[in-house]
Amino acid sequence: MSERKGGILVLDFGGQYNQLIARRVREAEVYCEVLPWTIPLEEILAKEPVGIIFTGGPKMVYEENAPRVSAELFGKGIPILGICYGAQLSVYLLGGKVAASDHREYGKKAINFKVDNPLFKNLKDESFCWMSHTSRVEKMPDDFEIIASTDHCPIAAFANIEAKIYGVQFHPEVVHTEEGSKILSNFLFEVCEVEKNWKMGDFVSASIEKLKSQIGNEKVICALSGGVDSSVAAMLLHKAIGKNLHCIFVDNGLLRKNEALEVVEMFKAYDLNLTKVDAADLFLDKLKGIVDPEEKRKIIGEQFIRVFEKAAKEVGKVKFLAQGTIYPDVIESGTKDAAVIKSHHNVGGLPDVVDFDEIVEPMRDLFKDEVREVGRLLGLPGHLVDRQPFPGPGLSIRVIGAIEKEKLEILREADFIYREEIAKAGLNKSIWQYFAVLTNLKTVGVMGDERTYLYTLALRGVTSVDGMTADWARIPLEILAVISNRIVNEVNQINRVVYDITSKPPATIEWE
Ligand code: XMP
């Protein structure tokens, strides 16, 4: 986000859901910025925030290197909402007491709200909230009162209403907190009394301006995969710098059936500098025998960069590399204070030495559906903007175990049938992502009176809003039956099809 004064400041203490908070604020059409907790007090005040939200985080406030802010922040008359760790930090800084619980409270919990305060205005007094904590508030600071409680957490929310300081132990930003959006909206409009002052169109114009001044007359190489994220990044850059943008599309041999052709065709309609590089043999050679998912991701990340460097040399002096990194890629690769889940190839997989001066990631703070909205605002067609996400490491993380050309072919054919049938059934818009995974498992079957010993294919289908959490899609059984039947009949080497019925968490969307 570009910097301006008078917005909501989200101080990041390392929790997994922090950008989700920012996103909820943006949804309410209020300008907000996420900044690390390390930012000095003077800089916070210089931004003249109308309200501050302290996020959650993985530490305990009494730990030696726990992230903290200056207690002086509380005396400035700025409304503050602390969430989870952020709430405990407020208690700690204001003289209350935090204690380790006997057990971890995790998941959806029944909660009672006292609704006679601005934060909980118009809430139902009994509802459900999302908890994820081990320590809890034991004693509130002076002049604070309890405004919500659960069975295991008597101080689930507290406030000094006059000072406009609030703390909630649960996560209002997560959809499982039923009144969560209302609570955040109350914080903005009832507690901070902010006016609506932001729209996604502001993001588009601000980022084009920012890209113009950041890049000037330099050349930029953009990694264009044909996916939503990199296409939107490319279009933003195209609007900002025109012909100084050079897009490189790498066919890494890990794409879906017909994909390389489709991407090149799709971008012919735009006046982009687009070069297709055929690097399938290089990638498959480097991946030979590699089984570990993180190793696959790192190898692919590195090869991508090497291919770009080479392509960039042909363009001439290139200062910037642009990438379509979005927020879930950043958070799942681990930030300084959050844990690593997977190294997304365009973030954690970056090799140490990169032959560009700078990396440009204009959508680093956005979620997928926000990126789609930006794409629409930029005039990209619906069939591109609504494409399902496809991971940078491509089919390599959907062939479990070592990658071989033959396995990729099997997967491509099966995945194509799956996608074709989902589209035929008109489910392609309601399911966030649907793809096939070639497991490394062979099982016994019988076909035409003969014994077979072939691969098991897994189908994955999930619904999600942002890819951070997901539920398995309830695809009608009769459609699954058609898909399974077609795959086993039409794809050699597969004699069994299973459907993945796990949500995220505890699983992830991709299998590797
Ligand atoms: P997971 O598997 O982490 O996936 O639940 C969340 C979303 O991110 C996509 N994904 C990736 N996207 N580079 C990407 O650009 C990657 O390395 C990567 N890994 C997973 C995944 O398809 C899902 O939409």
List its traits.
binds xanthosine-5'-monophosphate, alpha/beta, 512 residues, 3 domains, Rossmann fold, 9-stranded mixed beta sheet, single chain
Structural account:
With 512 residues, the chain is an alpha/beta fold. It has three domains: 8-191, Rossmann fold (3-Layer(aba) Sandwich), CATH 3.40.50.880; 200-385, Rossmann fold (3-Layer(aba) Sandwich); 405-499, GMP Synthetase, Chain A, domain 3 (2-Layer Sandwich), CATH 3.30.300.10. Helix content is 31%, strand content 24%. It has helices at residues 18-27, 41-46, 85-93, 180-191, 200-215, 228-241, 259-267, 280-286, 293-315, 327-332, 368-377, 382-385, 405-424, 477-490; strands at 8-12, 32-36, 51-54, 80-83, 97-113, 126-139, 145-149, 157-160, 165-168, 220-223, 245-251, 273-278, 320-322, 358-360, 433-447, 450-463, 471-472, 494-499. A nine-stranded mixed beta sheet has the order 2-1-3-4-9-8-7-5-6, sandwiched between helices. A five-stranded parallel beta sheet has the order 12-11-10-13-14, sandwiched between helices. The chain is globular, with a radius of gyration of 25 Å. The two termini are 31 Å apart. The model has no long low-confidence stretch (mean pLDDT 91). The protein binds xanthosine-5'-monophosphate (XMP). Xanthosine-5'-monophosphate is lined by residues 297, 328-329, 332, 342, 344-346, 389, 391-393, 433, 467, 504, 508-510.
